[in-house]
């Protein structure tokens, strides 16, 4: 009897436990335990106490104590609310200001006095801002070698935000990058051409040379000569193929070389020899339209007259050219490929970018904020789309511009003020032999480099 009674009590207790488990926290809508072998108590505890989510690995948590970040440039870099991308940036900025307790001030300094004021402030150890726009020509190596800036390589790895060429190529000094930019587009330069004149002269479309991968210095000279015509039979040329022939910087970039290589003159480079031979041909074979004694704007003025086929210029000139040439269809192709080049290139003799002066405190926090401001989901298919589609209504022109800009090369002569660049080019254009020019200017160029580095 005692055993039977104990067994009965045990069964009653087990039944009570089972009923409690089935009815607890279910609201009478069914069992908590739906899977075979699950422990009801474990399942119930998991629902009541969810696991805490860890923040993303690239998130930083810090308080800037109300600090004002000053951003200095030669234009006002305040983010406008003029398109959906910029609206996202503004929203990011406001959220970051609240989270990290800071403010931001954009300081614009007139371009005419910018270099002098900024350099003076850096040399005095009192930079005008935490983020300062600098021109490479007067920063590297002259100021960088004095340890006036933070290297930024470790902060610019986000390819969706930072222009990788700025840090890894254009702002390098002794193996480190000192510049950064959230702007993913580079300067676009190339050859504007008059499609209307091209058709009237019965010339092969320039785009076909690009499509055939046959747009090079030989075909460029060939086309220019074909457009040098006497259309009214008065024994004088009245159409020309090329406005101007002083294209040395463009040719250096297009042949993937430069006058300077690190701390050494580079005139012994076979690619520079190819460039000088090309410039010499333009002059000695009278390829370009002769000057009428004008200044540096003369080639652009010639092109606007509508009787010159090609003009070497930059994309930002497009709207002005089209405004002044409304009766003509204007096209764009890259500068022709050099004989030693792997692709087409734009050129930039005055590249600039943002930097962090060495007095900027907590550079990792500043760069984090800049990254997060610009970490957006763009509505555009590619960088610079809005501007290119405004300037060009031809898909080939857009593709050519993108190809040139994506492969922009910089020319470093402006970093060495004493390089006798114009004297050297003038001798090439006057027909002095290439070998003579190279031998004459190797030593002066090396002296100009040494002046800056030593």
Give the SSE layout.
Layout: H1 2-23, H2 40-48, E1 67-73, H3 84-100, E2 102-108, H4 111-123, E3 131-135, H5 136-139, H6 164-170, E4 172-173, E5 176-177, E6 189-194, H7 195-200, H8 206-211, H9 217-227, E7 240-242, H10 248-254, E8 260-261, E9 264-265, H11 270-284, H12 298-304, E10 308-314, H13 318-324, E11 330-333, E12 347-348, E13 352-355, H14 363-373, H15 385-391, H16 395-406, E14 409-410, H17 421-429, H18 434-453
Parallel strand pairs: 1-2, 1-3, 7-10, 12-14
Antiparallel strand pairs: 3-13, 4-5, 6-10, 6-11, 8-9
Description:
The protein is an alpha/beta fold. The protein folds into 2 domains: 67-185 and 350-387, Periplasmic binding protein-like II (D-Maltodextrin-Binding Protein, domain 2); 189-349 and 392-453, D-Maltodextrin-Binding Protein, domain 2. 42% of the residues lie in helices and 12% in strands. The chain has helices spanning 2-23, 40-48, 84-100, 111-123, 136-139, 164-170, 195-200, 206-211, 217-227, 248-254, 270-284, 298-304, 318-324, 363-373, 385-391, 395-406, 421-429, 434-453; strands spanning 67-73, 102-108, 131-135, 172-173, 176-177, 189-194, 240-242, 260-261, 264-265, 308-314, 330-333, 347-348, 352-355, 409-410. The chain has a 4-stranded mixed beta sheet. It has a 4-stranded mixed beta sheet with strand order 7-10-6-11. A hairpin with a 2-residue loop joins strand 8 (260-261) and strand 9 (264-265). The longest helix has 22 residues, at 2-23. It is globular and about 80 Å long. It starts with a helix and ends with a helix. 34% of the residues are buried.
